[in-house]
């Protein structure tokens, strides 16, 4: 049975199978080696994710099957919504955010002890892009700020270090890209094709660091190039 990589997160994960998305590109990269399983829930914060994680993971790995090779946990963009603005109902304070991340990672590790659980920080925020996307909001204030997202990114990294888990600091990495606000983000939060490629590169690097790459994961069934044309069936 092929190994699996589970993507668990909010809208940036849910959208990752769109054209140019990092999840679709990941599935293409491992097309003969791994099944990529999408569990993305637009708008969700860690409080809601913790409530539904057991249901979300049902069917991912049937009893007796090989556990997933890896799982990404990518929440925080909604937790970091400012509590006094239009998306305040999504806000989760940093101490609870960290507690929820610990609980989510612990749940996954207890369910699948051999699975590599990888945290991804919330991305940076282009506040100008959020204002332009704020239809019907006349406050003139973005509901998210880059400063707040950065605080949650640091909190995510802290949890990963505490638990000894790999982490991708996409908040910092993306801001190293020239003109990242428009190059990487289409609405101040969600990714452009280039933003998706930035995250994909980091995911592939981290997976390789954990021993999960095309060099270590064999292709499923013989490659066409290895089939003997004089007796094809013997290859199977």
TrEMBL record:
Q: Does the keyword Metal-binding apply?
A: no
Q: Does the keyword Chloroplast apply?
A: no
Assigned keywords, A-Z: Hydrolase
* GO MF annotation list: hydrolase activity, acting on ester bonds
Family, as annotated: Belongs to the 'GDSL' lipolytic enzyme family.
Q: What is this protein called?
A: SGNH hydrolase-type esterase domain-containing protein
Identify the species of origin.
Canna indica
Q: What is the lineage of its organism?
A: Eukaryota, Viridiplantae, Streptophyta, Embryophyta, Tracheophyta
């Amino acid at each position: 049975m092929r190994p699996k990589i589970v993507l668990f997160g909010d809208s940036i994960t849910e959208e990752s199978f769109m054209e140019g998305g990092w999840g679709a590109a990941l599935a293409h990269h491992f097309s003969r080696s791994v099944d990529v399983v999408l569990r993305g829930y637009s708008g969700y914060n860690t409080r809601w994710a913790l409530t539904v994680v057991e249901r979300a993971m049902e069917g991912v790995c049937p009893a007796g099957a090989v556990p997933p090779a890896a799982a990404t946990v990518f929440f925080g963009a909604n937790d970091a919504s400012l509590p006094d603005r239009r998306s305040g109902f999504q806000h989760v304070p940093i101490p609870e955010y960290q507690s929820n991340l610990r609980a989510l990672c612990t749940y996954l590790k207890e369910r699948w002890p051999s699975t590599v659980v990888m945290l991804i920080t919330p991305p940076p925020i282009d506040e100008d892009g959020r204002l332009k996307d704020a239809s019907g909001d006349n406050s003139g204030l973005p509901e998210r700020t880059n400063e707040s997202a950065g605080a949650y990114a640091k909190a995510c990294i802290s949890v990963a270090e505490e638990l000894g888990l790999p982490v991708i600091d996409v908040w910092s990495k993306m801001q190293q890209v020239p003109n990242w606000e428009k190059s990487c983000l289409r609405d101040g939060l969600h990714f452009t094709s280039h933003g998706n490629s930035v995250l994909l590169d980091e995911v592939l690097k981290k997976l390789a660091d954990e021993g999960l790459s095309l060099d270590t994961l064999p292709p499923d069934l013989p490659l066409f190039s290895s089939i003997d044309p004089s007796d094809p069936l013997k290859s199977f």
